[in-house]
């Protein structure tokens, strides 16, 4: 939130960037969350050694290929949604280039971090499934806006007559790398890319709505002094729902559906309990951030009331989504590590901003 509050003035009102903030944030949680989930399952099954280099190498090709293609598709659909909802002309080439460059910087920086954390956590005897989703989404959220701002500065400094060429370049590179990875990456990578394609259509339609919602509700959230909470709210709750998804995925791989009700009950209790300090921390940091940067504050009590109420609804949606999506993908013969996490994080992001906005209206009204 402090990073958001500090950098937000640099892109305030720039709808091409505002609409990409939650989209790129979710892509980090989606893509790197799936990588972490796969690494968690592989380590539990004893298929590879917990080495940072080995784990990074294992995930580099599929993660890069997916990041390239999805960042371009999501940027294009975000452009369409945002322009339709706002009725304002936007720059497509600029938006796609910003989305692609920020995605590449984030992926190349955060993937080795994920491999390192997974290796260290597993070697120390902890279950990565309990820690990775939170660590992945938190660092992903922290890095999203800085990388977007850097990409925005780079693209904005590019002469306008070069921007279309940049757009064509990043699109061509993405398609070429994805195609090469699919045909020459081996059976594991082909399966990952194939199963990701099955849910890409869903994400293409739904995920860019998150950015359009933020661009559309930006003024209302700012007026209620909740704008700084938006990405952290969906990030924290998305991480909690992802914990349920990651643990369910490992459970299904190891035990199948036998005894799943009892195991899910324990998972749901853990996530529900974790949401309490989560809501309090979002409120406290949000209030402190507004105080530090000298903005008028909503008031700590009112902020806690809004965030806590919205969290109850949001986490309930997340737990139900994790259970349904994980079991559904498993029964369809898909790997929940590839299919479940992206769907869960997308559901959490799509519902998060409207829930926070409506809750703010109800509680503060």
In summary, what is this structure?
By secondary structure, this protein is mainly alpha-helical.
Assembly type of the chains comes to: single chain
Question: What is the count of structural domains?
Answer: 1
| Relative strand content | under 5%
Mean pLDDT: 82
The level of helicity is: over 70%
N to C succession of SSEs = HHHHHHHHHHHHH
Give the overall shape, derived from the CA principal axes: globular
Low-confidence stretches: none
User: What separation lies between the terminal Cα atoms?
Assistant: 24 Å
Count of β-strands:
0
Write a structural description:
The protein has one domain. 86% of the residues lie in helices and 0% in strands. It is built from 13 helices and no strands.
Characteristics:
mainly alpha, 365 residues
Set out the fold topology:
Elements: H1 2-11, H2 15-18, H3 20-45, H4 52-86, H5 92-123, H6 128-156, H7 163-184, H8 187-206, H9 208-223, H10 230-255, H11 260-292, H12 300-331, H13 336-364
Helix pairs in contact: 1-6, 3-4, 3-5, 3-6, 3-9, 3-10, 3-13, 4-5, 4-7, 4-8, 4-9, 5-6, 5-7, 6-10, 8-13, 9-13, 10-11, 10-12, 10-13, 11-12, 12-13
């Amino acid at each position: 939130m402090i990073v958001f509050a500090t950098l937000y003035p640099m892109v305030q009102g720039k709808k091409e960037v505002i609409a990409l903030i939650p989209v790129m944030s979710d892509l980090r949680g989606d893509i790197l969350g799936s990588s972490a989930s796969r690494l968690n399952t592989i380590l539990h099954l004893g298929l590879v050694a917990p080495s940072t280099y080995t784990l990074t190498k294992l995930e580099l090709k599929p993660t890069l290929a997916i990041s390239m293609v999805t960042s371009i598709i999501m940027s294009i659909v975000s452009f369409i949604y945002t322009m339709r909802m706002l009725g304002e002309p936007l720059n497509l080439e600029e938006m796609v280039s910003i989305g692609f460059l920020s995605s590449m910087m984030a992926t190349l920086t955060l993937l080795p971090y994920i491999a390192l954390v997974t290796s260290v956590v597993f070697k120390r005897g902890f279950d990565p499934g309990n820690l990775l989703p939170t660590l992945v989404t938190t660092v992903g959220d922290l890095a999203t806006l800085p990388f977007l701002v850097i990409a925005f500065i780079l693209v904005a400094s590019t002469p306008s007559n070069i921007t279309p060429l940049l757009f064509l370049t990043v699109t061509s590179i993405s398609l070429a790398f994805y195609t090469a990875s699919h045909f020459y990456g081996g059976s594991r990578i082909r399966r990952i890319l194939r199963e990701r394609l099955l849910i890409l259509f869903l994400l293409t339609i739904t995920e860019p709505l998150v950015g359009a919602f933020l661009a559309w509700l930006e003024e209302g959230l700012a007026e209620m002094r909740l704008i700084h909470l938006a990405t952290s709210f969906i990030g924290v709750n998305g991480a909690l729902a992802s914990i349920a998804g990651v643990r369910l995925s490992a459970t299904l791989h190891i035990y199948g559906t036998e005894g799943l009700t009892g195991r899910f009950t324990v998972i749901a209790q853990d996530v529900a309990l974790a949401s309490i300090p989560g809501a309090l921390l979002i409120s406290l940091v949000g209030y402190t951030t507004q105080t530090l940067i000298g903005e008028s504050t909503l008031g700590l009590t009112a902020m806690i009331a809004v965030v806590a109420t919205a969290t109850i609804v949001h986490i309930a949606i997340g737990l139900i989504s994790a259970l349904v999506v994980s079991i559904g993908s498993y029964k369809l013969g898909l790997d929940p590590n590839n299919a479940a996490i992206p769907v869960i994080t997308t559901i959490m992001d799509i519902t998060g901003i409207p829930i926070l906005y409506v809750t703010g209206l109800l509680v503060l009204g």
